[in-house]
Fold this sequence. Notes:
Elements: E1 2-6, H1 7-12, H2 14-22, E2 26-31, E3 34-39, H3 46-62, H4 73-76
Parallel strand pairs: 1-2
Antiparallel strand pairs: 2-3
Amino acid sequence: MEKAISAADANRKFSQVLREVKEGRSFVVTSHGRPVARIEPIDSNTKDREAAKAALLKRLRKQPVVNIGRWTRDELYERD
């Protein structure tokens, strides 16, 4: 079960949060009442993550390679 925790509390109690995550608990981190992140044990979604990665790589392999030519460092960091 996930427990909601504010970003400020997660920051102040980070060591405690990590200990609880090691024990299997998951947290949803909120900022101004809106969920922004999830902290969960790494093994809890390994299969989902691998499936998502495989789907992304499959989709990327199907896309054509676009040659955009060379660019200079100044062009790369051009600011408006």
